[in-house]
């Protein structure tokens, strides 16, 4: 079927060419072209999604083969469509058609050049890279440890030598990815250039309803808003780690060793909360890890709890097929991609998650994140095919994260997970807990694509990939590797989104948007207390307004969608800064006289 479909597309393209060359194509032809694309994509995306699901939940030779084949076809068609869309650059068309033409030109994550075989080569490489990550394993203490368990070790271990061992061994797995990555960059860059971009980084940055250079400046502006908060948090954490591990492991005049922060990539630091906790006064601090276990939560119960937050806002419950078809826990006896993701298999309501859920606070949060994707996908499923998406990829990542900010002690009490709500004395503890996720993440969220932008532009070469990575890690995060990195190291490959080729600036944007959405929701319910205590659980009026934004999908510029829900047209981190103000004041006092910065 797919073969026939591809043949049809090529044939119709060939028939179009003489007309396009002879005269400027008409608005009517543009409309007909879009109708053809949307009809074809409706079938093709579903087929590709079902194959991708099969591969992600059952990695083997054949599923890799199928995935590479369909991805090659998809890339070829997408590039073909992008080129045909360019033919209408000078045609006067309606706003909707223009937006769809732009989507076709800008939204290919990895374009291939049109030369024979390029799309297949690219697809074979990307399938290999993705599988190499997910099936990676290390030997540790006489056991073979799979990828998702290495993450758990980094959360739980406290012995610096063991942490260094796990950290280093996991990075041994990505050495094999380097050549594939280099080849992939070359092919995809050539594809971007053929489509008229300087390089793939510029193509990625062009997808934000603004000039690509202005977008890069926008990310720096947002970082500038939050940098003082991050610098203060980093400083406090460095001093507490120094108290725990001593001067040799944590010298105060150096960036922090990356393996000591309770996370494989030092991107969120919630697991070392106990080491950095502020005083809680008389109130008991809330430890969600312990609470979930004590309350006999299961992965399924975590899923249902997250779902019920959304239904409390007036969203319809998830369909039965969600529970029948999702991968909620890691299956036995086969290889899967454990990195969490949310899917819509038929672009309508065959929505699912794929996770290897464990009962802990991290996965409780991730579950809300993933369901945010699913509820968003279902909200925009009545849009035309090309508008079924978000207008700015930070939106998709921010929906569930906005909900997680509503997981306040009052909310946990409402759902029976805690008996008593801590007094205001406990606020600093709560804010610190949240900051180890929401603030610690910010520079990481920013730098992953800063690195890729440098790779795609050629500013970094394969010889300097790794040093360039660590230069950014030091510059933005103030961290350093625990040992000298070998010449063949490819440390970026140890992070899923690099071999998985998922753009990452979206997560940085989401960390900003999440607080903007949250503050707007709190304003809508008339909340007057400190921002961090607001929960909009059960507020159907918020759900209604939120849904009005979500159901627009990608049919309008993100500025319009943002304005619809928040009343402002700019991304702005001041809600985040307001949320953490009490913590910032405390951190500044703590850090007085300390050697901050790096
Ligand atoms: O990849 C994810 C989600 C799936 S979209 C689990 N996140 C980023 C990561 O894990 O690195 C969520 C936070 C950032
Ligand atoms: Zn996500």
Give a concise summary.
By secondary structure, this protein is mainly alpha-helical.
How is the topology of this model organized?
Elements: H1 2-22, H2 27-57, H3 61-86, H4 95-106, H5 118-134, E1 137-140, E2 143-146, H6 147-156, H7 160-172, H8 178-194, H9 200-205, H10 212-249, E3 256-257, H11 273-276, H12 288-294, H13 299-312, H14 320-325, E4 341-344, E5 351-354, H15 361-379, H16 393-404, H17 409-414, H18 427-438, H19 441-457, H20 465-477, E6 479-480, H21 505-524, H22 540-550, H23 558-566, H24 574-579, H25 581-590
Helix pairs in contact: 1-3, 2-3, 3-4, 3-5, 5-8, 6-7, 10-25, 13-15, 15-16, 16-21, 19-20, 19-21, 22-23
The protein binds L-captopril and zinc ion.
Residues 340-341, 366, 369, 507 line the site of L-captopril (X8Z).
Binding site for Zn(2+) 2: 369, 373, 397
Disulfide bonds: 338-356, 522-534
GO molecular function, one term: peptidyl-dipeptidase activity
Please explain how this structure is put together.
60% of the residues lie in helices and 3% in strands. By secondary structure, it is mainly α. The longest helix is centred in the middle third of the chain and has 38 residues, at 212-249. The model is unreliable at 1-20 (pLDDT under 50). The protein binds L-captopril and zinc ion. The site of L-captopril (X8Z) has 5 residues, from α15. This is Peptidase M2 family protein. Residues 1-21 form the signal peptide. One of its GO terms (molecular function) is metallopeptidase activity. Keywords: Disulfide bond, Glycoprotein, Metal-binding, Signal, Zinc.
């Amino acid at each position: 079927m797919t073969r026939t479909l591809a043949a049809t597309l090529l044939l119709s393209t060939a028939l179009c060419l003489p007309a396009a060359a002879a005269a400027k194509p008409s608005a009517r032809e543009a409309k007909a072209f879009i109708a053809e694309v949307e009809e074809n994509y409706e079938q093709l995306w579903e087929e590709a999604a079902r194959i991708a699901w099969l591969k992600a939940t059952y990695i083997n030779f054949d599923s890799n083969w199928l995935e590479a084949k369909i991805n090659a076809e998809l890339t070829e068609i997408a590039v073909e469509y992008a080129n045909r869309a360019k033919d209408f650059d000078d045609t006067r068309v309606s706003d909707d058609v223009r937006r769809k033409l732009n989507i076709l030109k800008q939204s290919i994550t990895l374009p291939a050049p049109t030369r024979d075989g390029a799309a297949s080569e690219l697809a074979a490489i990307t399938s290999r890279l993705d599988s190499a990550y997910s099936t990676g394993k290390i030997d540790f203490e006489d056991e073979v440890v799979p990828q998702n368990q290495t993450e758990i070790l980094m959360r739980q271990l406290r012995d610096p030598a063991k942490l260094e061992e796990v950290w280093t061994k996991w990075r041994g797995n990505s050495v094999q990815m380097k050549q594939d990555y280099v080849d992939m960059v070359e092919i995809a860059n050539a594809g971007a250039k053929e489509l008229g971009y300087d390089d793939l980084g510029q193509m990625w940055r062009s997808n934000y309803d603004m000039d690509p250079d202005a977008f890069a400046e926008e990310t720096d502006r947002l970082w500038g808003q939050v940098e003082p908060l991050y610098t203060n948090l980093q400083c406090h954490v460095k001093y507490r780690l120094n108290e725990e591990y001593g001067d040799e492991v944590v010298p105060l005049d150096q960036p922090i060793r990356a393996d000591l922060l309770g996370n494989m990539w030092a991107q969120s630091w919630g697991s070392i909360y106990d080491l950095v906790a502020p005083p809680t006064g008389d109130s008991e601090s809330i430890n969600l890890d312990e609470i979930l276990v004590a309350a006999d939560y299961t992965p399924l119960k975590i899923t249902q709890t997250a779902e019920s937050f959304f239904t409390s806002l007036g969203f319809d419950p998830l369909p039965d097929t969600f529970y029948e078809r999702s991968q909620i826990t890691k299956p036995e006896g086969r290889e899967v991609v454990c990195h969490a993701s949310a899917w819509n298999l038929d672009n309508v309501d065959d929505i699912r998650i794929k996770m290897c859920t464990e009962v802990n606070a991290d996965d409780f949060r991730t579950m809300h994140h993933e369901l945010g994707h699913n509820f968003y996908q279902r909200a925009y499923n009545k849009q035309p095919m090309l508008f079924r998406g978000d207008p700015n990829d930070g939106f998709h990542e921010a929906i569930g994260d906005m909900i997680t900010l509503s997981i306040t002690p009052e909310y946990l009490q409402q759902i029976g997970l805690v008996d008593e709500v801590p007094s205001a004395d406990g606020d600093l503890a709560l804010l610190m807990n949240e900051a180890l996720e929401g603030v610690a993440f910010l520079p990481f969220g920013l730098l992953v694509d800063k690195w890729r932008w440098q790779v795609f532009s050629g500013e970094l070469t394969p010889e300097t990939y790794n040093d360039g990575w660590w230069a950014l890690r030091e510059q933005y995060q103030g961290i350093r590797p625990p040992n000298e990195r070998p010449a063949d190291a490819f440390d970026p490959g140890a992070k899923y989104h690099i071999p998985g080729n998922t753009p990452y600036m979206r997560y940085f944007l989401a960390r900003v948007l999440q607080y903007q959405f949250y503050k707007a929701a709190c304003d809508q319910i008339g909340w007057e207390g400190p921002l961090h205590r607001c929960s909009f659980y059960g507020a159907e009026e918020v759900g209604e307004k939120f849904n009005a934004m979500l159901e627009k999908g990608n049919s309008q510029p993100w500025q319009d969608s943002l304005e619809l829900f928040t009343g402002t047209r700019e991304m702005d981190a001041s809600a985040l800064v307001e949320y953490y103000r009490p913590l910032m004041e405390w951190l500044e006092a703590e850090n007085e006289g300390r050697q901050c910065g790096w």
